[in-house]
Amino acid sequence: MAVLPGVSTAYRKDGSCYYRASVTYNGKHISLGSYSNPEHGNAAYQEASSILNGLRTTVEAYPANSKLAFGKYVSLVNLRNNGLYIKTPIYLYPGYFLYYFSPNYAIKFDRDDLFFYSSHTIQRRGGYLFVCHYGSQYGILSRYGIRRFAVEGRDYIFVNGDNQDYRYQNIKVLNHFMGVVEEQRKGKTLYTASIHINGNYIIGRYNTEEDAAIAYNKAADTLQHKGSSKQYIRNYISSLTKEEYLERYQQISISDKLYTVINEATSS
């Protein structure tokens, strides 16, 4: 039952009453949210109608006293300007889109990612950005092959210096594997493998990134075999077959000093 324009009455399972606001635009029914009183619901309806019917507002002009949730406000502005309703707070531009968290903070993505982020809400915990997908949390950096605990500036960089620009051409992965860092030593590129055992310890330096990644796995395996309770993530080297991996695993050596550290750490 409509109590004010754009507002209808609804009831919770316990019988308590609340109010739903909605608007119709070009034949599409759009829910605006739930409200504790009909006046607030009607205010949201009036604001949505103004946006869709010509008020030349922008995402950045989101009013502090708006009765519309910010994400809904973005969706309506995008619908009016670009003719596409997207449930997540996305605004489309030619070749890319912005995913907004606030009027002054948005992340830029390639259009190739539009389908994914139009159906997945990005969440923030500190500086960690992630989505929930099939019941699990996935960091958005994983879509670029960047590990969960990778460090910006060491393991990956934003090419143009803008860490809000997540277009593929702007993200360069420097270190693809856990525990591996590329170094320049006497004009030669080497890959240093290290592992955390009550502090970081160098496993060794290797000529290829894959060898360093295998050395890290070998050190982690040794720790586990010695009874370490810490769970180390292993590197997966997709470029090697199982046989090639085992052969190189047997050939690669790790620091003798590290064996001493491992024995001390697992015997205490």
- The rounded distance between the terminal residues' Cα atoms is 71 Å
Number of helices: 6
Which class of secondary structure composition applies to the elements? alpha+beta
Whole-angstrom Rg: 26 Å
Are there runs of 5+ residues with pLDDT below 50, and where?
none
Strand content: 25-35%
Number of strands: 15
Fraction of residues in helix:
25-40%
**Mean pLDDT score:** 92
Number of structural domains: 3
Largest beta-sheet details: 4 strands, antiparallel
Shape: elongated
Compact summary:
Helix content is 27%, strand content 31%. By secondary structure, the chain is of the alpha+beta class.
Label this structure with key terms.
single chain, alpha+beta, GCC-box Binding Domain, 4-stranded antiparallel beta sheet, 3-stranded antiparallel beta sheet
Task: Describe what you observe in this structure.
- The structure is a single chain.
- This protein is an alpha+beta fold and 268 residues long.
- It folds into three domains: 1-68, GCC-box Binding Domain, CATH 3.30.730; 86-174, no CATH class; 180-267, no CATH class.
- The protein is 27% helix and 31% strand.
- The chain has six helices and 15 strands.
- The chain has helices at residues 38-52, 70-82, 114-118, 209-225, 242-251, 256-267; strands at residues 2-4, 7-11, 17-25, 28-35, 90-93, 96-102, 105-110, 123-125, 128-133, 136-139, 156-158, 171-173, 180-185, 188-196, 200-206.
- The strands form five sheets. It has a four-stranded antiparallel beta sheet, with helices on one face. A three-stranded antiparallel beta sheet has the order 5-6-7.
- It starts with a strand and ends with a helix.
